[in-house]
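Let us work through a complete example step by step.
Step 1: write down the sequence.
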Amino acid sequence: MTEQKKRACHMRANIIRMLTKAGSGHPSGSLSIVDILNVLYFEEMRIDPKDPKKADRDRFVLSKGHAAPALYAVLAEKGYIQESDLWQLRKTSAMLQGHPDMKHTPGVDMSTGSLGQGLSAANGMAIAAKLDKKDYRVYAIVGDGEIQEGQIWEAAMSAAHYKLDNLILFVDHNGLQIDGSNEEVMTVSPIDAKFRAFGWNVVSICGHDYEAIRGAIAAAKSIKGKPTAIVAETIKGKGVSFMENQVGWHGKAPSEEQCEQALKELEGDEA
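Step 2: predict the structure and record it as tokens.
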């Protein structure tokens, strides 16, 4: 197994551990974005854990802020925070709250959690880079259920209007949201055609295929005059058999027994 995949297994195991200790949180939508974060933080983004506020760093916005455990897991792997910090998730006065907090957590560029707003924040960062004539890039992840929010499409229109080719958006397309499947609640299909209609460059990939993720980012970087949306087909609950594609795991923490079962699967994969 490659170091990249071992790291992903370890991140997923830590997501399960921290949510079990917290007794609440969102496991399945955190597990689905691990591979994307793995590539961004360890291969693509120009960042320095020793200087989290470095002016010319690349920025990242987790618009689907309830997936904060995935962000915390990669921040621990990268050295922004200690792994021991993870076990204080959602505890009163602890650094790691249920949604990302840019004021208290090193490496968090934007406080998020109110769904639909993260792309607007990412737009602002990308526009600032243009105005300041800086070459940093802005990366963001939205959920597929989240794009039912109207503000996403206002932001999509704005990003195309301002030709934000320094903005790369991942759509975590796992097909499920808190109340059921996207198609049952409010269909979002076709996602690719919608973003193209709003003037975006669009790439569709498997969000667990490392070569595909790398290739999509490389393709996005080559595009001038347009933002890029990478529609990543993912599995909600990826890596834990009893969570995969199960809507009931959107916002439920594992029991100690379920944690043990999940860790056996993940740590077996990591070995």
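Step 3: interpret the result. The two ends are 8 Å apart (CA to CA).
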